[in-house]
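Sequence and fold:
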Amino acid sequence: ALVAAAGGPPAARLIAFLSGEVAPVRYQVYRAAGEWLRRHAAPGERVAALEVGTIGFFAERPIHDLLGLVSRASRPALARGDLPAAFLAGQPDLFVALPANPLSAAIERAPWFPGAFREVARLRHRRAGFEVVVYRRRPGASAALIAAGPSAASPAADRR
């Protein structure tokens, strides 16, 4: 009955969504990512993501908002237009990337990223094809990231 109501009035759609019978694709994948993180990340490990709400709620782990809405550490770098530096400012242990998103790509293409992070999970909605990729910081990369600091992520640092 609730599935049929999903096309009805806003209250009926909300009830269907909250009951789990109808959930947008993005929500389903973000929830799966959050649940994966809750099972595979230690309680103190920091997670960086572009869209933190659902992921952070289900992960129950410290979350670093790369867009600076809830994470002030990102804001100075974002004001300079330097998303990789905003990423490093949060000193994340894990990163939930959106492969189809150019903002995620800016971090994944940073010269230091492949040496510092490795893919550990890929969560995909079978029918819609929407996916997220979870990266974990490589052992020993912590000191290098902290020592390099956000300037290592900036384009100016690449030209030095």
